[in-house]
Write a structure and sequence with these properties.
By secondary structure, the chain is mainly α. The chain contains 5 helices and no strands. The chain has a domain at 3-85. Helix 1 (3-28) packs antiparallel against helix 3 (48-81). The protein starts with a helix and ends with a helix.
Length: 119
């Protein structure tokens, strides 16, 4: 992969990361976590089960969003180490259209499909 293509993908990853961090900050109202923010929206008429369900959902969303940031950070690290564009499982090149569509992807399509079928 040439330098110009890598630079373009790096910019794309950085833009995705910046956008995600901005979105997280807006949803949380700053640096407050989702669960803490959700606690302020409880109403007296809410049942404990409803409050717990909403809190669990907030934790799950928080975990997923943090996982997305970690995936983007890992892709940046692979760019820095020169392993970007190679599947982390089989070391084969990841198809360029796949990288362009989802630049943080770490596996080729075959390995990703296999991983998902195991889950």
């Amino acid at each position: 992969m040439d330098k110009q293509l890598q630079d373009g993908l790096r910019r794309q990853i950085l833009e995705l990361r910046s956008g995600l961090l901005t979105q997280l900050a807006q949803q949380r109202g700053g640096v407050v976590g989702r669960a803490e923010a959700a606690a302020h929206f409880q109403h007296a008429e809410d049942s404990p089960a409803q409050v717990n369900t909403e809190r669990d959902l907030e934790f799950a969303l928080d975990e997923r969003e943090l996982s997305e940031v970690a995936e983007l950070d890992a892709a940046l690290q692979r760019l820095d180490t020169g392993s970007y564009g190679q599947c982390v499982d089989c070391s084969e090149p990841i198809a360029l259209p796949r990288l362009q569509a989802t630049p943080q992807v770490a596996r080729c399509l075959a390995c990703q499909t296999q991983k998902e079928s195991q889950s």
